[in-house]
C-alpha cells in the first residue's frame, strides 16, 4: 500500500505528463499550420514568378531575330559582313546593305499594297525609322618616336581607345574649316548607352550621322560621308543602329552592327538583335490574355516581395545576430534584391520610352518627314535584356529554394545534410583551387598572350582555362607557338586541375557520405521541429484525402441499395472464408493439443521447415510421427533457435559497445569537469591570496 501523499504525487506526475504531451501536440500542430501556410504562400509566389518569366518568351521572336540577322550578315552579297577588313570594305558593305534595304521585290511590292507607311523589307517586316551611324574617335598624338634613333623625325600616332584619349573635336569640312560637317554629340542622360565590343568599351555619345529611309537621300548621305572622310585613321569604332517592326506580331527588333578599327589588327565585327514586345514597351501593354495574366502575376510578385521584406525585417528585430546564422535568410535577401533590381531596370525602361512620346508617331506621320525620323530603341532593349537575365539567375535560386520545403523526405534530407556538412571542406577546396588556377592563368597569359587572342588578358585566360574543364578549348595554337613549353603547361594543368582537383572534389562528397552513413546519432540530432511539423502536415493531408476518397462509405451513405449490390458479394465471400477458417481450426484442435499450441503461438511459418504442413501430415496426430521425422524437426528447430541466439548476441554486443562508448564519453566529460574545477580552485586561491595581501 502506498501513502496518500505518494499516490497524489504519482497522479500529479501523470497529470503533468499528460499536460506536457497535450501542450507538445498543440505546439506541433500550430507549427505545422505555420509551415503549411509558408509552403502554400511560397508555392503561389513561385508559380507567379514562373509565369512572369515565361511570359516574356515567344517562339515567334526567334524567327524575327533569325530574319534580322540574315539581313545584317548578307552572306549572298558581293560584300558580306565577314569580308569587312578595312575602311574601303566597310563602305562597300554599307552600300550593299542599303541596296538590300531599298531593293524592290515581290514581297516588298505586296507590303506596299497594304500600306505605304515605313520602308518594307518583306511582307511582314518594315524599317522603323532611319538608320543611324555612330562613331568613336581618338585624338592625334604628336612625337611618338622612341629612342634617339628617330629623334630628328616627328611622327604622329593614334593610340588605343580609352575615355582619356577620346576625341570630341569637330571635323569633316573640305572647304570651310569654321563650318565642320561632323560634330560630337554629348550623351543624352536618359537615352544614351555605352557599347561593349571585342576590343574596348565605348561610352555614350559620339559622332552621329543619320541616313534617310529615302533611297536618293541615303545614297547622297553615304557619298558625302565618304568624300568628307567620315571614317579615317582616328576612327576606332562605328556602329550602325536601326530598328525593325513586324506588323503581324506587333514586335520590334533593336539591331546594332559594331565595327571596331583597333590600333593594330584586323577589323572586328559584332551584331546584336534584341526583340521588344508591347508588354515590355508600355505598362499594362499587350492585348492578349497571356499579357493580361502576366501583368496580374507581376503585381502578385511585387506584393509577395513586400510581404517577404516585412517578414524578414520582423525576424531581424527578434533574432538579431542569430538571424545571420541561417543561410536560407541570406538566400531570401539575395532573391528579393534581384527581383527589386529587375523591376527597377524595367521601370527605367518605361521612363525612357515615355520620354520618346508616342512610339511610332513620327515614323507614321504623312509627308517626307517620316523618312528622317529615328527612335533609339537600343537602350530600352538593353535594359529589358538585363532585366530578363537577372530573372533567369533568380529562377535558379528560387527553384533551388524548394529544397527548404521538401528536405524532410528521407533521401533528400540525407543528401541535403551531406552537402551542408561538406560545405566547410568545399570552401577550403575552392580557395586552394583558386590559388592554383591563378598560377596557371598567369603562366598561360605570360607565355602565349602575345599569340592567342583568348589569352591576351588575365580575365580571358581565366575563362579559357575554365572552359578546359568542359573540353571546349583548342590547344593546337599553343603547340604551334612552342611545342615543348606548351606541352609541359598543358600536361601540368591536366594532371593538377583535371585529375587531382576534380577527384578531390568528388572525394569530399564521398567522405561526407560515408561519415553520414555510419553516424546514426548525427542523423538523430539533425532533426528539428520544422521537419517534424512538415511530416505532421503530410500525415494530416494524407488522412484528409484518405477519408475523402473512401468511396465505399460514401456510396453506402448515399445509396444503400447500390452499395449492397456492389459490395454484397465481396462481403459474403469474406464471411464464407471466415467460416472455413474456423472449421479448420476446430479440426486441428481435435487432432492434437500440440498442433493447436503451435497454431496459437504463431508457429505456422515454422511448420514447412519442420515437415509437418504437407497434405499427408495434416491428417496425422503427434503419436503417428516416426522418431526420424521428429528428430529432423528438432534439428531444424534447434538451428533456428541457435541463429536467433546468435543474432541476439550480436545485438547485445553492439549495445555493450555503445554503453562502453557512452561511458568513455562520460569519463572524458568528468575529466574535463575535474580540470575545470581545479582551474577554478586555483583561480579562487590566487584571488584570496591577492585579496589577503
Question: How would you describe what is shown here?
Answer:
A hairpin with a 7-residue loop joins strand 11 (251-260) and strand 12. This protein has helices spanning 4-55, 59-73, 87-102, 106-114, 215-227, 278-281, 289-319, 327-356, 361-364, 378-400, 403-406, 410-421, 423-448, 458-467, 476-481, 483-517, 520-525, 529-548, 551-558, 560-591, 593-600, 607-610, 627-692; strands at 119-120, 125-127, 131-137, 141-142, 156-157, 184-185, 195-196, 201-202, 206-211, 235-246, 251-260, 268-276. Mean pLDDT is 78; it is low at 1-15, 520-526 and 594-615. The chain contains 23 helices and twelve strands. The protein starts with a helix and ends with a helix. The chain folds into four domains: 30-56 and 288-406; 59-276, no CATH class; 418-518; 626-685. The chain is extended, with a radius of gyration of 41 Å. By secondary structure, the chain is of the alpha+beta class. Helix 1 (4-55) runs antiparallel to helix 7, helix 3 (87-102) packs antiparallel against helix 5 and helix 13 (423-448) runs antiparallel to helix 16 (483-517). The strands form three sheets. Strands 1, 2, 3, 6, 9, 10, 11 and 12 form an eight-stranded antiparallel sheet that branches. A two-stranded antiparallel ribbon has the order 4-5.
Strand content: 5-15%
Mean pLDDT: 78
Q: How many angstroms does the end-to-end distance come to?
A: 63 Å
Shape: extended
Number of helices: 23
Low-confidence segments, given as residue ranges, are 1-15, 520-526, 594-615
Radius of gyration: 41 Å
Largest sheet: 8 strands, antiparallel
Task: Count up the domains.
Answer: 4
Instruction: Tell me the number of strands.
Output: 12
Helicity level:
55-70%
Structural class: alpha+beta
